[in-house]
Predict the 3D structure of the following.
Amino acid sequence: MKRCPQCNKSYPDAERFCADDGTALISAGGAATTRVEDIPGARRGVEQPEQRIECPVCGGKAEPGEIICNFCGARLDSSATPTPEPFRPSPSTSQPLSTQRPMGTARVDEHTFPDERPVGEELGGERRGWLGIIGYVAAALVALIGGAWLALHLTKGSHAPVAQASPATAPTPAAIAAAPQVTLASTIPTQVSGPAAAAPERNRDAIEKVFDTNRAALLDAYTHVLDTDSTAHDGMLVYVSIDSGGKVTASSIKTSTTPNPSLDAEVLNSIANWDFGPSSGPAEVELPIIFAHAGAEAAGTESALSTKLAALSPSEPPEYAMSAPSPTAAPTPAEVAAVPPPPPPPPAPPVTEAAPSRPRHRRTRLASRPPTPTLLERVQDRLRSDPRTRRAKAYTNGGVVTLYGTVFDDRARRLAVNNVRALSGVTDVIDNLKTNTAEWQQEQDAITRQLQNAGLTGVTVKVIGKDAFLDGQVNNDLDRERAVTIAEGAAPVKVRTNLIRVAPGSVFGF
């Protein structure tokens, strides 16, 4: 049996080194503290056998010529010549194996390989890595806080720029020309007649200045008409009678290019409130007013008004007239003095005795007859009596009745004309009525044109009131949705029902 002189562990005779610490085994009867220096002949220059190679990692002993350690697999440095060193036993068995040297072995220098570090150095490197990360984070936080403080310090005394509204974009000449316009005709002069026609307060410049002052009210009346008919335009010759105080006593529309009773009434109501200023006497003014929403349209309307005025007869009655009730003037003191006093009452007859008279029966007075209705009242009552013509309106000029407003269809339109024409006192009926069906047909035609221009020739539309109903066939879902967008953009309608079918075309396109 053999034993390890370091740990006294027993091994068979065939073993040469200790499996725990790599110490050379000795026979069981040898001394445990035998050192190399105590070997006979070691100090007397006796030739010793070749020294074994010590592993620089685990301290294990390897035979001369070996390259790899049998215990840890590390590479052995065979070029280093080991130097004998006395064996110093470890004070405790718990000391790491790498710090223990077996008895009888020489000390070799410890080598550190690129991929291996001592345990203490590895722990220290890991500790230094964590400390470095913490240091970097702390430095970043300090830099961030410092930058924020610097930014606040720099902006503390500065004032934020005051937001200024950008100047409004001036309208372009094209936009101004396309807006609704109310102007005096440029080729038809404004006429002033009457006793005060030569006064400076009634010359053409003064009259046109009053027109410019009140132009906004006329434009507002024209805008109301455009809400129901976006294509409305008119040129009219307005007659205005002015008293010496500058108030309007009467006004009328002698003729117009497109008779529109609602616009005529609003224009005359607005003119009735104009103030021309006091003058030496009354005067009469003729104003040629143009209502249009484009320069070319205004020129065409003015030309049509000139043509109509050339054919106007002086005795022709006005199309629309309105009279302002003049206030009753208070009598002057001279007029009161000129009025003769009332005659004195006759003397009372002498009282004589007479026979008692018979009692008289009181006579009941008959109720006064209602006033005879005017022609306009009879026309309005006749229109309101039938539900189909209830929305129609009228005004009269002598025996001529002008009908305007809206009814449902042409049948109701003819009914209104025939019912008014049958009244006594009516000499003529001017039909300016509009129908809902005609307006619907116009919107339907406009939508159809837009659909055809977009290539959707297979789509049909029906307009009833503010609702549109689509039908037909398209090639894909995109065209089906596009038809809805085109219909609602071409007219003021809402697509209520979309019955368009999607049928993809063939690969040959037909």
